[in-house]
């Protein structure tokens, strides 16, 4: 019984964390979003090629090949800083985004204190007068449990994203940029 | 000269540096481009390193036409229309792979890697054995030639050879593809993105628009600076001031190259150690790349000459009409092609180009730099420009405007160091004028290879 309750508590904690992350992104609170990422994060989105069925498994570009995102904490920091600049014309006026996260699946991590979490996402972007982008995909995350810091806000969210691999379900990226985080 | 040609001459007044917005939106003009520009110009297909074995193939486009490119058993590379001779269906719908045969899914006509028709279902019963299969192979792209790994093709029987077409542009391309023994290769994977904008907007930008870099990419440069974001957001902020400083930094001694075939090198600085300037302060990957550039500097200078080891090794360029490159910009080199998708869109396909002789850890650092800066921080703001131009030109009064392409008018000429037609500043619009001059010649020449007219 306690095992089932533990699993439920874990699921609630992870769902709450992923929803918080989505909220920070949709509210343009990118500095706070950056705080959810571990210092050793690899944030990676391979490209998706059209391959014959017999080459299945080779659709995604491999590590070390061209990618849509291939970032560490430093370069994500650059992207976040760019979001705040008055000369980032692509996001000024800012876009409206809505991240929907679902199909959360939780498995044990490879290391103590970590869990492997898969989730599906839809991200809708509306920009300027009538520009609309719709992205769907899956994320494979490694979440690392951290102690709540116990500050006056009642503690941190309890998790850091230690690794994220994003499958964006598009061959040609159909938006004019990816000035967004998934 | 037909009435339409007269209209085009009024829309593209390159001598005066005036170009009408009509050429970016008009469907009739675009249809004429698909017939007169892309099949005749040398179009970029593939890098040789993507087709290592016989039977390796990629699919791509020459303008609006779908093309299949395959390595042959004799080691050559052949290109053919990716369209079955029976009903036109694409015989290959994968981006890349390896195969012995392409079977059309519609009725089963099957072609080998050279495009020869090797199997026709119902040949004996239906055609009574009378079909001459040797006459019904895939339509070949008759001329395929390479320059140091870069494979181009044309349908034109009377186009000059690729080397003659490139002319002095080859001297500048060598800074990208021939830095070291063994030449260059692309890493795996290709980045494809659909942009809302006419293809000429990106073509002219890579040919000559060093001007935009300081403003459009102010935030991509500013993001690398180690400042807290809070002080950056107000108008007249440090970010805006830094953008102006970046623009001021662009006003160093430099040159632009333009070519009568419509090629261009957007602008480079002549006094720099171009490739490593600023890289080392950025981050680990950039430092790895900076160390590599420094370690190979003497070898490159020995191979290409000191003048090519500097300025032209760090810039953007265009081979007319749609092959684009960035050489050594923020830690990575990019090659790409901008496929037109109707008058309103283009698709940008890009690969990361590395020296074949570079160590694996350097190639890995370069491909990460490639994802972060040109494809990440810089791309975003380019996409916004093109879509906002395209949106504005939907109005009839807006698209009738003549836009100003007059910077540096009359300044270009021979240079004591750099070959070809060279402008004495790193920022100007001579390559754009040369691009549109050549474009106009293609567009007003109906059948044969468009002659390069004298002054």
Number of strands of chain A: 6
State the order of secondary-structure elements of chain A, H for helix, E for strand: HHEEHEEEE
Oligomer: heterodimer
Task: Count every beta strand of chain B, where a strand is a DSSP E run of 2 or more residues.
Answer: 22
Helix content of chain B: 25-40%
Observed structural traits:
heterodimer; A: 182 residues; alpha+beta; six-stranded mixed sheet; 3 helices; 6 strands; 23% helix; globular; B: 455 residues; nine-stranded antiparallel sheet; 13 helices
Task: List strands and helices in order, with pairings.
The complex is a heterodimer of chains A (182) and B (455).
Chain A: H1 2-26, H2 30-34, E1 37-46, E2 67-71, H3 73-83, E3 96-108, E4 114-127, E5 131-145, E6 159-168
Parallel strand pairs in A: 1-6
Antiparallel strand pairs in A: 1-2, 3-4, 4-5, 5-6
Chain B: H1 3-11, E1 12-13, E2 18-20, H2 27-36, E3 43-47, E4 56-62, E5 65-71, E6 77-81, E7 96-98, E8 101-103, E9 110-112, E10 117-119, E11 143-147, E12 150-154, H3 162-166, H4 169-177, E13 184-186, E14 191-196, H5 199-208, H6 213-216, H7 218-222, H8 238-250, E15 254-258, E16 264-269, H9 284-304, H10 306-309, E17 315-319, E18 323-329, E19 332-341, E20 345-355, H11 360-392, H12 396-399, E21 402-404, E22 421-423, H13 430-443
Antiparallel strand pairs in B: 1-2, 2-21, 3-12, 4-5, 4-7, 5-6, 8-9, 9-10, 11-12, 13-20, 14-20, 15-16, 15-22, 16-17, 17-18, 18-19, 19-20
Write a compact overview of the structure shown.
The complex is a heterodimer of chains A (182) and B (455). Chain A is α+β, with helices and mostly antiparallel strands.
Walkthrough of the structure:
The complex is a heterodimer of chains A (182) and B (455). By secondary structure, chain A is of the alpha+beta class. Helices cover 23% and strands 37% of the residues of chain A. Chain A is built from 3 helices and 6 strands. Chain A has helices at residues 2-26, 30-34, 73-83; strands at 37-46, 67-71, 96-108, 114-127, 131-145, 159-168. Chain A has a 6-stranded mixed sheet with strand order 2-1-6-5-4-3. In chain A, strand 3 and strand 4 form a beta hairpin. By secondary structure, chain B is α+β, with helices and mostly antiparallel strands. Chain B is 31% helix and 24% strand. Chain B has 13 helices and 22 strands. Chain B has helices at 3-11, 27-36, 162-166, 169-177, 199-208, 213-216, 218-222, 238-250, 284-304, 306-309, 360-392, 396-399, 430-443, and strands at 12-13, 18-20, 43-47, 56-62, 65-71, 77-81, 96-98, 101-103, 110-112, 117-119, 143-147, 150-154, 184-186, 191-196, 254-258, 264-269, 315-319, 323-329, 332-341, 345-355, 402-404, 421-423. The model of chain B is unreliable at 227-233 (pLDDT under 50). The chains are: A alpha+beta (182), B alpha+beta (455).
């Amino acid at each position: 019984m306690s095992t089932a309750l533990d699993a439920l508590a874990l699921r609630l904690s992870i769902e709450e964390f992923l929803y918080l992350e989505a909220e920070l992104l949709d509210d343009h609170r990118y500095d706070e979003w950056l705080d959810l990422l571990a210092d050793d994060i690899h944030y990676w989105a391979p490209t998706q090629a059209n391959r014959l069925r017999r080459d299945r498994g080779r659709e995604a570009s491999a590590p070390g090949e061209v990618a849509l995102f291939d970032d560490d904490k430093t370069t994500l920091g650059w992207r976040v800083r760019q979001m705040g600049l008055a000369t980032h014309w692509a996001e000024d006026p800012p876009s409206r985004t809505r991240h929907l996260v679902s199909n959360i699946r939780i498995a044990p991590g490879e290391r103590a204190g970590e869990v492997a979490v898969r989730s599906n996402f839809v991200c809708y972007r509306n920009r300027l007068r009538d520009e609309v982008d719709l992205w769907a995909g899956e994320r494979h995350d490694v979440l690392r449990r951290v102690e709540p810091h116990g500050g006056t806000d009642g503690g941190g969210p309890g998790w850091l994203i230690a690794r994220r691999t994003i499958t964006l379900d598009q061959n040609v990226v159909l938006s004019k940029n990816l000035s967004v985080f998934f | 000269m037909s009435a339409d040609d007269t209209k085009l001459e009024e829309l593209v007044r390159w001598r005066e540096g005036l170009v009408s917005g009509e050429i970016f939106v008009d469907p009739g003009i675009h249809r004429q481009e698909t017939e007169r520009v892309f099949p005749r110009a040398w179009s970029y297909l593939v890098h040789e390193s993507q087709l290592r074995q016989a039977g390796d193939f990629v699919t791509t486009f020459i303008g609006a036409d779908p093309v299949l490119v395959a390595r042959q058993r004799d080691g050559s590379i052949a290109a053919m229309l990716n369209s079955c001779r029976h009903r036109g269906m694409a015989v290959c719908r994968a981006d890349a792979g390896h195969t012995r045969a392409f079977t059309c899914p519609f009725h089963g006509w099957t072609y080998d890697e050279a495009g020869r028709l090797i199997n026709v279902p119902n040949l004996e019963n239906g055609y009574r054995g009378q079909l001459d299969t040797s006459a019904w192979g895939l339509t070949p792209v008759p001329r395929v030639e390479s320059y140091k790994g870069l494979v181009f093709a044309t349908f034109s029987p009377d186009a000059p050879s690729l080397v003659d077409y490139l002319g002095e542009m080859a001297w500048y391309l060598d800074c990208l593809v021939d830095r070291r023994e063994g030449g260059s290769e692309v890493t795996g994977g290709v980045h494809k993105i659909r942009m809302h904008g006419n293809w000429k907007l990106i073509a002219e930008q890579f040919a000559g628009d060093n001007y935009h870099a300081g403003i459009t990419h102010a935030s991509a440069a500013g993001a690398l600076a180690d400042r807290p974001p809070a002080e950056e957001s107000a108008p007249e902020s440090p970010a805006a001031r830094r953008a102006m400083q970046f623009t001021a930094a662009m006003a160093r001694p430099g040159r632009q190259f333009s070519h009568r075939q419509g090629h261009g090198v957007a602008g480079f600085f002549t006094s720099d150690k171009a490739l490593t300037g600023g890289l080392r302060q950025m981050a680990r990957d950039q430092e790895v790349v900076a160390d590599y550039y420094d370690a190979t500097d003497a070898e490159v200078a020995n191979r290409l000459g000191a003048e090519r080891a500097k300025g032209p090794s760090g810039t953007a360029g265009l081979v007319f009409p749609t092959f684009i490159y960035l050489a050594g910009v923020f830690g990575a080199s990019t090659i790409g092609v901008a496929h037109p998708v109707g008058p309103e869109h283009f698709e940008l396909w890009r690969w990361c180009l590395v020296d074949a002789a570079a160590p694996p850890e350097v190639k890995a650092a370069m491909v990460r730099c490639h994802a972060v800066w040109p494809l990440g921080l810089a791309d975003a703001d380019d996409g916004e420009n093109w879509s906002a131009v395209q949106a504005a030109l939907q109005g009839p009064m807006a698209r009738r405007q003549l836009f100003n392409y007059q910077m540096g008018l009359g300044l270009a000429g021979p240079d004591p160091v750099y070959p070809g037609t060279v402008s004495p500043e790193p920022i100007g619009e001579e390559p754009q004028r040369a691009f549109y001059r050549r474009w106009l010649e293609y567009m007003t020449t109906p059948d044969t290879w468009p002659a390069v007219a004298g002054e």
